[in-house]
Design goal:
With about 650 residues, the protein is α/β, with parallel strands linked by helices. About 25% of the residues lie in helices and about 25% in strands.
């Protein structure tokens, strides 16, 4: 018998996924005739509401001799999350259709269980057009490229690393503290020098980790938001970087660190660097005093995750909000310098009110300004500080860092079952608004995670200390296998819905465990050429293949170590297959693709597709789209606008 309900198939629910407010959703359930159902109801409640509403289904005929069809409509008229399920009155008493773990296949039970999620977002919500079809590139400025220009620096409280290829300093100082005060002297002019290289990779957006004046090499301890750190250069260097990048069709976005500042800053000034009578720590009459939360001034204050060097900011303080989001605030100033938006550090620790104000500032300055938030979980249903967050409903963010896809892809490369992996992917596609999906920031590595190559091919970290991490390097065999699997992972990263983001050096074969080992310098002159060429090829594919811009998603196969899907739009479609096993796979491609165009070394001969171990395959179909579309609409067509 067919399953009673599957929220990811348009036979049961159309339209699929998140919807604009005011959109009517048509639902269909299939019930066993021998259940003798007398009444079927759709049960719906709005997020935290305790009261369920019930909408009656209509009996609409039979599916087969043993199955009945019931149908109903529902129209959400308020943005937010809805939860829904199905209540049946049968000859045998009350029954409920509930989703069963782990793959969302529904069953009929005697008691209610979990509900399905429905995301309803603001009518007219749009996201910027320019990221669609492009590639993002994340740069930790100290570690990408040094221009060779020596700066006239006044500070002496740092260590300069003269060996570009050395490990960052990872051991604590004599006080047992990690100070992050070693610098490799990467700078903004160094990035400008490498714009041609980034253009060849297909990069259309550079995401810069913080560049404002600070005293650590990562610069998340802001000293002065208004100034570029002197080690990196000047504000004029940033303006020039943005201008030169735009000549090549490359946008720049900055890292906005607004949940805290540095204690060594002109705003807090614990160390006295900015004079004796400035900053909230030294003067209660400071214009910045209201930014901070003191329990007992000056030494007892709220700090980010207990780090005394990172005093927390009260983001709803009017003075702070004006300083950041005002007409002449930090957000607008850097956009006037030429940036195209912001990545918001620890977005789940920023109040909704602050992010709404920031969105207003960005969009007034540039309607195409891009806002990405750091959220590690499913951002559609994230809860923090006792409330459901509203990141993706059309009033705050355009996109988030998509750690859900990252984890799913890397798990697949490490042997996770393809059904589990596809389920993780589909949970995002089902829960996120379409405008967000098209610009999702899809990373495999970041400055906060282990390098993808190490995750895929190295020994699991398992809590080992920094000494162990510092001594690890992939063996020849580990690296060979890891390179093959990383190419597979990047193939998924570049073809799933969203905006792939390459963490600098991943494309060149950098490895490394956690911070600071994931923050080594780009290996100029020692790059893995095979990986670079693979990234270039996929970057070119994203430019030329319109289904990857905002195309529909079709789940085809998820079986053990093999996973495949189709991206398609009105012009063409792309079949993507991934073989994470150690065995070659010879197969018939889906209907309509046997005569398609194989690309990127895909082997398609006499209608048979051969996929070597630890590799992927891609076939473009520009002639038989209607055939494949009709086939998947009757089987498992999933993600569509219509």
């Amino acid at each position: 018998m067919p399953v009673p309900f599957d929220s990811q198939k348009i036979y049961y629910r159309t339209p699929f996924g998140a919807v604009e407010e005011g959109t009517t959703i048509h639902l269909r359930i299939l019930l066993p005739r021998d259940l003798h159902t007398q009444r079927a109801d759709l049960a719906v409640k709005y997020d935290y509401d305790y009261n369920w509403e019930y909408f009656g289904f209509f009996w609409c005929g039979t599916f087969d001799d043993a199955t009945e069809i019931w149908e109903a409509d529902f129209t959400p008229n308020k943005i937010g999350l809805y939860w829904y399920g199905f209540k049946l009155q049968t000859k045998y008493g009350l029954r409920y259709i509930v989703p069963s773990d782990p793959y969302n296949i529904s069953t009929i039970e005697t008691s209610p269980g979990r509900s399905w999620q429905l995301t309803c977002y603001k009518k007219g919500f749009t996201t910027p057009k320019w990221p669609v079809g492009g590639v993002m590139y994340q740069i930790l400025p100290d570690r990408f490229n040094f221009s060779g220009e020596e700066k006239n620096l006044t500070r002496t409280d740092f260590q300069r690393n003269t060996d570009w290829y050395a490990l960052p300093q990872w051991w604590p100082n004599e006080n047992g503290e990690i100070t992050n005060s070693d610098f490799f002297m990467g700078d903004l002019k160094g990035i400008t020098q490498k714009l041609d290289y980034l253009e060849e990779l297909g990069v259309s957006c550079i995401y810069l980790n913080p560049i404002s004046e600070a005293y650590s090499n990562h610069r998340y301890d802001t000293g002065d938001y208004s100034k570029v750190d002197p080690i990196l250069g000047t504000n004029e260097d940033f303006i020039n970087l943005c201008a030169e990048a735009k000549k090549r069709g490359i946008h720049v976005i900055n890292d906005g660190v607004y949940s805290h500042t540095g204690s060594d800053s002109k705003y807090f000034n614990r160390n006295g660097r900015y004079g004796e009578h400035t900053g909230a720590y030294r003067d209660q009459n400071s214009p910045y005093y209201s930014w901070y939360k003191f329990n007992n001034w000056p030494n007892d204050y709220h700090s980010w995750w207990g780090f005394y060097t990172l005093p927390e900011v009260n983001e709803t303080d009017p003075k702070f909000n004006e300083y950041i989001n005002g007409k002449d605030g930090i957000v607008r100033t850097y956009m006037r310098y030429g940036n195209s938006g912001w990545r918001l550090d620890v977005a789940d620790e920023l109040p909704d009110e602050f992010m709404e104000n920031l969105r207003k500032a960005v969009k007034e300055e540039d309607p195409e300004g891009f806002i990405v938030g750091e959220v590690w979980e499913d951002a559609s249903n994230k809860e923090s500080y006792g409330a459901r967050r509203r990141f993706l409903l059309g009033e705050e963010l355009d996109s988030v860092m998509n750690y859900v896809f990252r984890n799913a892809i890397l798990d697949f490369c490490r042997g996770a079952d393809a059904k589990y992996v596809m389920n993780q992917i589909m949970s995002v596609i089902e829960n996120y608004p379409r405008p967000v999906l098209r610009v999702l920031m899809n990373s495999l590595s970041t400055h906060d995670t282990e390098r993808a190559l190490t995750v895929i091919a190295g020994e699991p970290l398992n809590g080992r200390d920094r000494q162990w991490q510092a001594n690890q390097k992939l063996s020849y065999d580990q690296r060979k296998r890891g390179t093959a699997l990383l190419k597979l992972a990047v193939g998924m990263q570049y073809t799933l819905p969203g905006f792939p983001c390459v963490y600098y050096g991943d494309e060149a074969g950098l490895e490394g465990y956690r911070d600071p080992f994931n923050r080594c310098c780009y290996p100029w002159g020692r790059e893995d050429k095979e990986l670079i060429e693979w990234h270039k090829a996929l970057g070119n594919l994203r430019k030329s293949c319109s289904p990857l811009w905002d195309g529909d998603f079709v789940k085809v196969t998820a079986d053990k170590n093999f996973l495949s899907y189709i991206r398609l739009d009105s012009k063409s479609s792309l079949y993507c297959a991934f073989n994470a096993s150690n065995e070659e796979r010879i197969m018939d491609p889906p209907p309509g693709y046997a005569d398609g165009t194989p690309i990127l070394d895909t082997k398609l001969e006499n209608g048979k597709l051969t996929i070597p171990p630890l590799s992927c395959a891609f076939i473009i179909n520009e002639t038989d789209r209607r055939l494949s579309l009709a086939y998947f609409k009757t089987t498992n067509f999933i993600y569509t606008k219509s």
